[in-house]
Design a protein that fits this description.
One of its GO terms (biological process) is protein transport. Pfam families: Tom37. It is found in: Mitochondrion outer membrane. Keywords: Membrane, Mitochondrion, Mitochondrion outer membrane, Protein transport, Transport. With 130 residues, this protein is mainly alpha-helical. It has a domain at 52-126. The protein is built from five helices and two strands, in the order ββααααα. A two-stranded antiparallel sheet has the order 1-2. Strand 1 (7-8) and strand 2 form a beta hairpin. The radius of gyration is 18 Å and the shape is globular. The chain starts with 6 loop residues before the first strand and ends in an 11-residue tail after the last helix.
Length: 130
């Protein structure tokens, strides 16, 4: 349905990271299987840190920053996605990631890139990693 990442199984297509991980765990494909309780907790804490701090910065770099999106992200996805999806799927993903970033940051960011950079003292990504 135009959502990435996606895992095509024999029965269905699973498209959310949490659902993909749950599907793999049910079938005993789990990299954390042999970890102790402490190691499992550390892994969960690290994954949460990445999702909370790094993910918004990556979304911004790939999908919001207009220079990166136009010169890198859109062409990259356009080449990887088969015709005719390569004409509209990158734009759909762009819109979804903009919405996701607004939800993650509670709408507390500026759509105007120059003003956003000025607010962050020239380091736009710094405000995502607070």
């Amino acid at each position: 349905a135009g959502v990435l990442p996606a895992l095509k199984t024999e029965e269905d297509v699973v498209s959310q990271p949490v659902q993909i991980l749950a599907y793999l765990r049910k079938r005993k494909y789990n990299a954390d299987y042999g970890l102790s309780a402490t190691q499992g907790a550390d892994t969960l804490a690290f994954a949460s840190l990445i999702e909370e701090k790094l993910l918004p910065a990556l979304i911004y770099m790939f999908w919001v920053d207009s220079k990166n999106y136009v010169s890198f992200t859109r062409p990259w996805y356009g080449e990887a996605i088969p015709f005719p999806l390569n004409f509209f799927l990158p734009n759909r993903m762009h819109t979804r990631f903009l919405e996701r970033l607004r939800l993650i940051r509670g709408g507390q960011w500026n759509d105007n890139e120059e003003e956003a950079e000025n607010e962050a003292g020239g380091m736009t990504l710094a405000r995502f990693c607070r």
